[in-house]
Design goal:
This protein is α/β, with parallel strands linked by helices. It is 36% helix and 25% strand.
């Protein structure tokens, strides 16, 4: 049975990649594409129902899975509309506030919602294994992360960097909000033992690089993940959509749920 999907921001960088892959996948049916009212030209190429209003599409596609990689408030509104219609949503947007995440969790009680700041399989494997690496190395090793993204990315640090630093902080019994250092300048003194450094670079068309540094006495360990194209995130989102179509409401699902 095909999973019917609706893509938000269909002409954007991620949306266009997702729609292209969906059209090639026999297990998926592109049921709808949503774009801004002033950007609807050429939408007929998707060969599906198109609109600038998701609600209009969900009137006839209440069992579809909406895929959204737009912006926090837009994605939150997508989740609200899915909750009202009975549709599901896979959200890959980053930059949510804690309050917005709380609302997503609340909405997940009544509709099928999936949210991951990074949909790549490699990153989500790192989320599971990096805390163990840090624990095995011990507290003599200082933790720093550097992330690089294209110049159009609006949030910093990346949602992926924040997520990974959160799980690493928890592995060490720390709080990222209290122990994270997101910039260094001037005479700042020696590095504190419980610091977690997070540095951000922006430029060009970099899809996404994340490097984790574990600085120890006499050595350092580096772990790097590089996304070569947006297809890795799009494929992850489509995999999540297929999986979510068979789930029930009750929690805000994540990539770890697919792997469990």
């Amino acid at each position: 049975m095909q999973t019917r999907i609706v893509v938000m921001g269909a002409k954007g960088r991620m949306g266009n990649t997702i729609t292209g892959l969906a059209l090639e996948d026999p297990q998926l049916k592109l049921a709808g594409a949503v774009e801004r009212a002033d950007n609807m030209s050429g939408m007929e190429e998707y060969k599906c129902r198109t609109s600038s209003d998701l609600s209009q599409i969900l009137k006839d596609e209440s069992q579809a899975v909406v895929i959204d990689f737009t912006a926090p408030e837009t994605s939150l509104e997508t989740a609200r509309k899915c909750s009202q219609s009975g549709a599901a949503a896979v959200i890959g947007t980053t930059g949510f506030s804690s309050g917005q995440i709380s609302e997503l969790e609340e909405l997940a009680g009544t509709t099928r919602l999936f949210w991951a700041p990074n949909m790549s399989v490699g990153i989500n494997v790192l989320i599971q294994i990096l805390p163990e690496l840090l624990t095995r190395l011990g507290d003599m090793y200082d933790l720093e992360i550097m992330e690089i993204h294209h110049k159009h990315k609006k949030d910093a640090p990346s949602g992926t960097a924040v997520k990974l630093d959160q799980v690493l902080a928890e592995a060490r019994g720390l709080d990222l909000e209290k122990n994270g250092v997101f910039a260094r300048k001037g005479i700042i003194g020696e590095r504190k033992k419980d610091e977690i450094g997070v540095q951000t670079l922006r430029g060009g068309d970099v899809v996404g690089d994340h490097t984790f540094y574990f600085f120890g006495p006499g050595e350092r360990v580096e772990v790097t993940h590089r996304a070569h194209s947006r297809e890795t995130f799009a494929q992850g989102a489509l995999r999540a959509a297929k999986w979510l179509s068979g789930q029930k409401p009750g929690k805000l699902y994540a990539m770890a749920d697919i792997f469990s």
